[in-house]
């Protein structure tokens, strides 16, 4: 059998090592009869073979070896081979394989590549673009690609050496290109340039695609020594997309601006995604910048399910507690609007939120909590707005059926009281952000008012004290704080003292009755109690 016949058969061998050796041998044969089998391998074969390389090993692509062989053979022939031209325009072929083939065919086939570059079919233009390595591209070539109607071709136009890249063109594409892939790539290419904060911050405020906003967070993160970058990232902590919120949290992990701590603290209260919450809690100065969160962190630490979470939360709790100056309320209505927007979000009232942004809209109508928010805004009364927001959070938490699952009475009561406390914390952090000249993240409902595994009585004790119940002379509340054994003792003692008609708990109670309930709630059972 002739050598070239053996090479032809070897190029079809199922073993990629054999095909690789055949492609290498074909390069030196110069036989144009091997063009077709080599073309088939160059366009279809994606196998890689591990081969020796110096003191180690590397991988060699069989299809690339065939393309090199084709370049060697066709370089000895004038003109453009019709079979190659047809293959270059065959849409059944892989675009990258055709581009690789054109690259290895070299300058002799540049007319074919140029013809494809101006073809009406976008995929053929993409092949022509990819056939030119980024290091070999000129500014004029890149400019042509950036003006192409196809987004994939425009993406190729962005891949040029840094000294040739047109940052102004990249900024334009980042802002206005219709394809999000192009906008994201343009942003990432500008990440390490001297471009300032504002172009990225402005783009992030209006960008509809979450992947592009994530890329913009990366650009802002590289500039986080600038306070404006920290504020822009903090504003994205409330982004609708979890991937953006997580990127923003990770970007602020090592920030030293107290604004970051206040914004992260505000978001910790309202973050529904566990992964994003984990990223937020890795901010090392959280309790230094937002010490009001310590009870929340202690509760999360106590009921953490994973070792990593316990370590993260434990490190936060070990940090030194620093005093912060009380925030000042802003006089321009921003604080008032932020408080009422938090109330609107708690109530799930989009109409109230829209009305706060545009009071020219029809006045929203709804439950008493919503009406109180409207009245507070109309009167521009900060204290009234604070009370309205607290009442809204309390009412929503109390009525949430999910809070009744662990305990139909203690669960909603605990959740409502925690919502009241955490709403006050949210207002404090909001005022702190506004006082620092930063906008708080978008409002969101409070999360994790009850944690899985929490003891319902202990949870209620964390927000309702025996002393408060004593001062209110409320035996019903004291009953909720009693352990089962203590409650049994309380009822038994009450029946022993009043065998025929036990005293009511919802009216005036005697001092003896109140003291008995307090003793049981505190777990100080004694025999012979009178």
Automatic annotation (TrEMBL):
Pfam families: HEAT_2. SMART domains: EZ_HEAT. Transmembrane segments: none annotated. Coiled coil: none annotated. It comes from the Bacteria. InterPro entries: ARM-like, ARM-type_fold, PBS_lyase_HEAT. SUPFAM superfamilies: ARM repeat (SSF48371). This is HEAT repeat protein. It comes from Dactylosporangium matsuzakiense.
């Amino acid at each position: 059998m002739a050598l070239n016949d053996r090479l032809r058969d070897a190029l079809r061998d199922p073993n990629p090592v054999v095909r690789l050796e055949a492609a290498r041998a074909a390069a030196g044969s110069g036989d144009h009869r091997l063009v077709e089998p080599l073309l088939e391998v160059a366009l279809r074969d994606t196998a890689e073979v591990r081969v020796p390389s110096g003191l180690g090993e590397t991988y060699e692509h069989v299809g690339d070896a065939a393309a090199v062989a084709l370049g060697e053979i066709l370089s000895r022939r004038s003109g453009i081979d019709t079979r190659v031209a047809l293959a270059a325009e065959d849409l059944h072929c892989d675009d990258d394989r055709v581009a690789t083939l054109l690259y290895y065919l070299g300058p002799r086939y540049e007319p074919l590549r140029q013809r494809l570059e101006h073809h009406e079919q976008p995929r053929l233009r993409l092949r022509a673009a990819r056939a030119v390595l980024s290091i070999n591209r000129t500014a004029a070539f890149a400019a042509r690609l950036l003006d192409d109607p196809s987004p994939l071709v425009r993406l190729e136009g962005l891949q040029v050496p840094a000294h040739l890249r047109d940052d102004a063109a990249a900024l334009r594409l980042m802002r206005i290109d219709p394809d999000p892939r192009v906008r994201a790539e343009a942003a990432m290419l500008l990440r390490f340039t001297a471009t300032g904060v504002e172009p990225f911050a402005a783009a992030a405020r209006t960008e509809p695609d979450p992947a592009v906003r994530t890329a913009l967070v990366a650009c802002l993160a590289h500039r986080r020594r600038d306070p404006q970058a920290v504020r822009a990232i903090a504003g994205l902590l409330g982004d609708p997309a979890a991937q953006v919120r997580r990127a923003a949290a990770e970007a602020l992990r090592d920030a030293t601006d107290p604004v970051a701590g206040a914004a992260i603290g505000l978001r910790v209260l309202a973050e529904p995604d566990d992964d994003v919450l984990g990223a937020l809690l890795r901010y090392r100065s959280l309790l230094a910048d937002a010490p009001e969160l310590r009870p929340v962190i202690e509760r999360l630490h106590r009921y953490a399910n994973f070792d990593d979470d316990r370590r993260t939360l434990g490190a936060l709790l070990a940090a030194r507690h620093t005093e912060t100056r009380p925030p000042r309320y802003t006089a321009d209505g921003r604080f008032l609007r932020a408080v009422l927007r938090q109330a609107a979000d708690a109530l799930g009232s989009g109409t109230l939120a829209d009305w706060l942004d545009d009071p020219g809209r029809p006045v929203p109508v709804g439950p008493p909590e919503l009406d109180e928010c409207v009245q507070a805004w109309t009167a521009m009364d900060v204290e009234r707005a604070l009370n309205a927001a607290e009442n809204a959070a309390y009412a929503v938490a109390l009525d949430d059926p999910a809070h009744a699952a662990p305990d139909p009475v203690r669960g909603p009561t605990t959740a409502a009281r925690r919502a009241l406390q955490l709403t006050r914390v949210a207002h404090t952090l909001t005022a702190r952000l506004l006082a620092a000249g930063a906008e708080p993240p978008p409002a969101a409902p409070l999360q994790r008012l009850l944690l899985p595994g929490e003891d319902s009585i202990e949870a209620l004790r964390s927000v309702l004290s025996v002393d408060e119940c004593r001062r209110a002379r409320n035996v019903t509340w004291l009953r909720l704080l009693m352990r089962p054994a203590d409650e049994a003792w309380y009822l038994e003692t009450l029946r022993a003292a009043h065998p025929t008609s036990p005293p009511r708990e919802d009216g005036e109670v005697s001092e003896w009755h109140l003291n008995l309930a307090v003793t049981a709630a505190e777990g100080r059972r004694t025999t012979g109690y009178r």
